[in-house]
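Risk register update: the risk that structure generation would not scale has been downgraded. Supporting records follow, first protein first.
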Amino acid sequence: MSFRRALALAACGLAGGSVLFSAVAVGKQPARGGEAEPRPGGSAAAAVPPASAAPPGLLLLPPAAAASCPPAPGWIERPAGTGGYWDSNWDRREPLSLINLKKKNEETGEEELASRLDHCKAKATRHIFLIRHSQYNLDGRADKDRTLTPLGREQAELTGHRLASLGIKFDQIIHSSMTRATETTEIISKHLPGVKKISTDLLREGAPIEPDPPVSHWKPEAVQYYEDGARIEAAFRNFIHRADAKQEEDSYEIFVCHANVIRYIVCRALQFPPEGWLRMSLNNGSITHLVIRPNGRVALRTLGDTGFMPPDKITRT
């Protein structure tokens, strides 16, 4: 029984919730603390396909094991039929999905279609640098009182120096409107003169999605997941995607925000189960580097890098 339970837990961690590792076909899953969407009719047992339907090398688990996986909120889109494999249209910018095939010219046929597809294809690579704010005053009651500590200001200086030393021409800095992120941005920007700064509420700290496994020391109310989760998901959809087809050169963008937001974005961008965001830990002032290729492929270059800081300057508060 312990072996079967271990397999079931492995399935929950790897499947991501759309089409489970056990090959149970489901639709969009109900949101915890939010809106719910119906499943297709029938029991879980009836939805299990024959063993021949499983991709080679995948182990089919019994319905009971699959049913133990937690449901996902309704705003997380997990296309059915992918079996946990990469969704190439994750950002809804796959060229074929941008074309209205009903308007196809019957005279030019495939030639026109190829031309239209080429017109919609991304040409450039986006480099996303996600920076966690520096250490701040935890005793502040309001956001305006949660300013950077002296050590936090040192951390921001070190992060800014590190970014400048990369020799990259950054396009912009987009930062959370919260005080600690704004102050971190101001210090970093001194090392990157001429790079425009943009403030947004979408990147403010919050509770993106109920973590799995849960933790005992941090349990927000369900309404916080419902409100913050939709906003942080909106930040992901607005900022994390392949380059626009009109973009000719590779871009390098900095996002200064918060640990919860960054961890959630990393999970979503890599198409890992977003409920696993709390399994990662990020230091203050750390650098996370995501790369989004023109074909929509995503790679994680670094996660929470603070190797450029002296050991006595590293914190996670």
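Supporting record for the second protein:
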Amino acid sequence: MKIEGGGGSGMSESAGNSTNFVLLSEGCVSYILSHTSPRDACTASSISRGFKCFANSDAVWERFLPSDYQDIISRSVSPVIYSSKKELYFRLCDSPVLIDDGNISFSLNKHNGKKCFMLGAKALSIAWQDTLIFWRWRSLPESRFSKVAELLAVCWLEIKGKFTTKMLSSETSYAAYLVYNIGAVSHGLDFPAKTWVRHIDGREEVEEVEEVEEEEDVGVSVVYLTPPKTGESVQHSVHRHRECVGRVPQRRADGWMEIELGKFYNEKMDGEVEMGFTETQELLWKSGLIIEGIDIRPIAKDGVRE
């Protein structure tokens, strides 16, 4: 039956096109949808009942999951339960999975399915971490990990993390962030620190930040764990690096703070990426820093946090 009127004619043509498209084989439609994006697949599921069936199929959402997702979730400390690949995809986006004895968390970027990891404090190398008068391990209900590291007192503050690049999404730009909080009582955390991110690819590990700075492919940045107060740089000009302009922390949605350590591009390669944070210039006593871990996540193309 033909519907009279301009709007009616358009609706008839649109409905016909939609019907013709749905008449395509399930394999063909699933193949097309699997080459779009998770957001496009969700949009397609609202077009019609036929589209919803195809757009929600395991064949489509299997393509949005990383090729090694089964191996990763097999390392989870607790079973990952799901009834469909679409449910698993959003489960991994919304609820990070703890793997490798609970010291690393794994999740997916909801927009593009890129892999995200966080190294818990137990997976990091922290100078003097096993010396009880300098650091202590404690549990916090707001942390995804069973233990976080709390700084009691050190002069030499150095935190490093390493991660295998083949575990990350290939041909993807990443950024690494130190995730932390400041305790109710703290001291000496307002001085500028240095950070870096670099590929080590089997090369001998560098111990001193001065040696890291000499490497041509490594960019060393200046950061502040707490934003410097107005006029403070003048009052403390006797301290080295005080007048440097550096990155300041941001508050995360989960209540923790984060400071960017650096960026890197992950190609299809074997090797490791190392991330470092150090404040070893002032050698003043520091306390009150609570470290949850180092977050490694993709960088959005438009510069907005993923």
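The chain is about 25% helix and 30% strand. On this basis the risk owner (M.S.) recommends closing the item.
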